[in-house]
Amino acid sequence: MNPITHILDTFPMLILDGAMATELERKGCDLNDSLWSAKILMEQPNLIKQVHTDYFAAGADCAITASYQSTIEGFAARGVSRAEALRLIQKSVHIAAEARDEFWEQHKSSDRPKPIVAASVGPYGAFLADGSEYRGDYQMTEEELMDFHMPRMKALIEAGADILACETIPCLSEAKAIVRLLQKFPGTYAWISFSAKDEKHISDGTPVAECAKWLDQHGQVAAAGINCTPIQYIPSLIKECKKNTAKPIIVYPNSGEQYDPDTKTWNGAACAEPYEKSAQNWRKCGAQLIGGCCRTTPEDIKAIADWARS
Fold it and tell me: Residue limits of the Hcy-binding domain (predicted)?
């Protein structure tokens, strides 16, 4: 069964978690590394489990795994074998599921759904670690992108993820490659969320309306929307998606600070408006799956949960 439909049939919205890397850094991890949070899968997986638990406690209905930047190619560059890389990729799902099951055993409640585990499938640009996930200028064919994504997607599905979180996708061609791969796994669902450059276009310049319209045709796509994008663009992007798809709209933007992929630093201030106030507006615009991406925290997710369940 489509896990998102299963939840939205009973509850008005699904609350996602927030940033993984931000929390790992707050716990003392150094993520200035091409593997980013995937590095912690090798070094301190217990900290990843703690972050998942913190978000569940804050009210999240979904844990996004620490596999965004986990790829066979990325691990290979660090001397990790293919077999070990696949084990680590699957471990990201097992950690999240274990945190979810332990939390739910102690906090079963009728006013929220049992949380789901969404296995993060980051874009090809995340493996490059050069900011390409905000440009989408890969110069690769759909077939080449399918070859890249296939081993990780297969491993995550076999690890037992409830759904795939195909996120920060910068170009429609990569989304098409992922959806074509999904068709090789009947019964598997994914959400597709793009990174965007302005109020109406994803990162490579394709209108988000065109993306939503294309995704609307595909039954294994459980939700469509935007993540890892400046907060001010979100209301317009939701409306553009809503006009072109009947699928649930998912949004989990950044805190409002701006990321510089060259220096790998964040600049500027977070949005002056409280995060939950922005989230309330996104809900009014039509989003049903709402959470946070880079620089958001369990406190932000708790604020969303407090008003959503009040």
Answer: 2-308
First to last CA, the chain: 28
What's the CA dihedral at 102, 107, 109, 112 to 10 degrees? -70
Structural domain boundaries, residue 52 = 3-308
Q: Is 125 exposed, middle or buried (0-12, 13-18, 19+ CB in 10 A)?
A: buried
Percentages helix, strand, coil for the chain (3-state, rounded to 5) are: 45, 15, 40
Kindly give, in sequence order, each residue whose CB lies less than 8 Å from that of residue 223, ignoring residues fewer than 6 positions away.
4, 191, 192, 193, 247, 248, 249, 250, 288, 289
Annotated binding site for Zn(2+): 228, 293-294
Q: How far apart are CA 12 and CA 158, in angstroms?
A: 30
- Identify the bridge partners of residue 166 per DSSP, sorted by sequence position: 121, 192
Q: What are the tokens at 227?
A: 């993540």
What's the CATH code of the domain at 60?
A: 3.20.20.330
Reading the chain (310 residues) residue by residue, the pLDDT tens digits are 899 999 999 999 999 999 998 899 999 988 777 777 788 998 999 999 999 999 999 999 999 999 998 999 989 988 999 999 999 999 999 999 999 999 999 998 778 999 999 999 999 998 888 888 889 999 899 999 999 999 999 999 999 999 999 999 999 999 999 999 999 999 999 999 999 999 999 999 999 999 999 999 999 999 999 999 999 999 999 999 999 999 999 999 997 666 666 655 656 656 668 899 999 999 999 999 999 999 899 999 999 999 999 8
Q: How far apart are CA 100 and CA 233, in angstroms?
A: 32
Return binding residues: 228, 293-294
